[in-house]
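Researcher: Re-running this chain for the archive, since the previous output was lost when a drive failed. Same request as before.
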Amino acid sequence: MLEFQDEFTPAEKEAIENEFQRIKENVYLDHAGTTLYPASLIDASSKVLKDNLFCNPHTCKVTGDLIDQARYRILQHFNTDASEYAVVFTANATAALRIVGECFQFGEDANNVGAFYYCQENHTSVLGLREIVGTNRHNVLTKHEILKSLTAVNGNGSNFDNKTNGSNKLKHNSLVAFSAQCNFSGYKIPLDIIEAIQTQGLSLHGTPVRGLEKGNEANENLRRYKPDFCCISFYKMFGFPTGVGALLVSKRGQSVLQKRYYGGGTIDIAMTRQDFHQKRSNFSTRFEDGTLPFLTISSVLEGFRTLERIVPATPKRLTMERISMHVYRLAKYCHDSLAVLHHANGASLIKFYNHVGYDDIALQGGVVTFNVLHDDGTYVGFAEVACIAAVHNVQIRTGCFCNPGACQWFLRLSNSDIRKQFEAGHVCSDYTDLVDGMPTGAVRMSFGYMTRPKDVDKAVAMIRDCYLTTASERLRVIERRELPEALRKVSQRLRPQLKRICIYPIKSCGAFEVSSAWQLTRNGFKYDRTWMIVDVNGMAITQKHFTRLCLIRPIVHLRDGVLELRFPNMKSVQVPLEMHETNFSKRIESSFCQSKVCNDLVEGLDCGEAIGQWLSDCLETEGLRLVRQNSERRSQDGAAKEISFANQAQFLLINRASVRWLANKVESEKESIDQTVDRFRGNLIFETASPFEENSFEEISIGDVNFKVDGFCTRCQMICIDQHSGCKTNEPLRTIAREFGGKIRFGIYLSLKGLEEENAFVSCKEEVKVRKIEHGAEQ
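Model: Regenerated structure tokens:
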């Protein structure tokens, strides 16, 4: 049993509990998104507004004094004063960043301007600066590359350009942007880096730069660490008020910000009939366009007072230091509690995303970010975890948290991976959590001073109880209550879904993917394996000996009643979908194929000389003929079989989740998931929450059509033929044999269970229900 070391006294914990009675049975773990406001802050803010008459600060000295008082209090909080920093009120930290981006002077000479450097692990608000900064020299740096500057200053080697550093002759400035604490991982960049960059430049480039910092740590000491710009949102600190932030600008930083636009009280004079104006000399006033949100700013003052009352300073630690220690310990407690969770096979349940672990508060904040893993190492989508959390009244954050760079770094995504995910439909803040099995984001738990150890315990128990069990159990958990609209579709992913329908009109040739509902017959899908190609001896040919058969692409034109055949560099040909037994001389009998069913006899109609010659030309083999099934298929003892020219059964079901698992095991000959799926030539392409769920299927219904499982599909060398090129490979047969101890089975056979009418159709839009072997469970 893990122990938690309390930072707060019992009396303090009771006072905090009383402030947040409205939480009730909910667990709130998204303090990196916004912290929660205490009830007394609302009461105090309301009292100030009720007891005072605040007017427009441009005309009311009382209001102006209140705003100045707020400025001084902000500077006091950051351990500095007006002699070193100016406070510019903004709407939020993003608006503060924009001011810097628009006004920062990179150089007077367009041919000699500085560069804009930004840490990869940054908020999109920083990335947006690329669109407005006055330089086209943009450089992205990893966390490790930024820290090289600190390493060099400490005497461990340097690549600095000493000829330019510190030179007064330099006519340009550069700008570096980074977060004091990463909102994705909680990593804290050592703030000693600020002075190192300001005085020595970046070790990778040797350029003197100005330091821009987006402050996620609300207890920074600006007397010790002196960023030129610090951007703040007060709702991150107090929970209330929203809509107000600040830009803190050092004296050094003030010298390089030149503002063009003006409005409201930012000027001393402006003329209408002559293009003349003069901006205010006071730096803060010059940058605060229009009327400030003075009523909201009054609540900022109350935020500081309330926070220091609820969490008072001690002889050892200030208020924010105590809060920082509390949330750090909670994060460590949460991390350690999750880290011990393992599947029955010993595999870890959780994959964490952080740089340094949870052993040093100087480098790690109150954030735990992770993804949940299946027992085979594949990822659980974060949207599914969000559903589970919603059911348990646990508020967490999922996705990339507006930090795509950190997301890319920790998830090990290439630029092409990200573009591929976008092309697959994934956009910021959606619930497209997995693309080809790879995560597009993660799960984040972040903590505040009102978070209790029992809140962490509840969240960890939720993960443990829901993910050390079956997908069916998770689905039952999710269905206990109605989910928010945005999450309702996500819960359906836990149910088996029919993703694609494919038919193979000509045995062993290419697939025809169905785009709408498709008709069923007693033999299976209409026109599935209805034709086959035979050689001069009347034997069916397959890809085992003619790998380029897969390049013959059949297209069913229902409206025109024809089957069009295409082949690379050949003119397409057509054959009628329906043939009538008008010419008995075209009727032939053929042994089915050299396989386990080679003794089955089929009767069919020759499709003619022209199509036969076309096939011979495509495959460079004389005497080929196309035969259409004409009557029932029969075994040697004369028993009729309700099956077309397919080898074993009416339908083959392939599970994308299982293929994805297999693809991750393949060590060479990598390809896209869709390419691997196509190798297995399935009719019904399913997607389940976990790999190999299909192995426990007993019966399936798609809409009103019922299927029964006939057994496993034993694979042969045909799955080693790339269905898009006709080339032979070693995979995936080799990996299947290795992973399953020589048992080469993949996919399941299905047959119809009492088709009542010939006009039955199946589509991917139909609801899928599965009856499993285990306990007769239905999903």
